[in-house]
Model the fold of this input.
Amino acid sequence: MKPLSLPLPVFGEADKTFHDHSSVISEAEPKAAISSPSHEQLEAMLKTHGIEAKFDNSGYPLSILCPPGWNRTVTIGVLLFGTFWTGLFVVLILQNAPLLFKIIWGISAPIIELIGLNMLPHQSRVEFNRDQMKVVNQIGPIHQKQETFELHLIMGFKHEVYMTSNSTAYSRVRAETTYGKPITLADGITSQSNAEKLKNSLQK
Done:
């Protein structure tokens, strides 16, 4: 949330009232200009998160690409946790643990490993033009899902923290559509300010 300062009604001369209002406006304008990065700066900031974004000279978004393995830290974390979880499953079998524990660990361990393995080749690509937005999610050469949204069906954009690991918060930027289901455009952003800047650029 950005702080907003509004002048209270001033009882006095009209010139003084106008001066008070203009001073508030003149102070707010430089701050807005500083908080809005150029499209080159935004491309460079997203590049630090492994995300390749392209904007035209006017700042209109052209594409957002999350290439395979762009979120390596989370992927490695999931794989390590899955390995640890699988090790516990082996211990439970060797210790002849109750059947319920074997079932829970036996189902969850391969699911966690499968999620981590799917994250390695996964990539997403978002393409914009003046009429529509195309979102392509792909897992290697095996699976590809493509969705196309007319721009009048997009209600807005938002950014949110979807996962926290130790002291690192991971944010994502999503599009809100009339279908009700948010569409993830970019994730794995470890800077909430950069996620907000991307959201603001898309919103414009």
Remarks:
- The radius of gyration is 24 Å.
- The chain is about 45% helix and 30% strand.
- Helices lie at 14-35, 39-47, 72-94, 99-119, 192-203.
- The first strand starts at residue 52 and ends at 55.
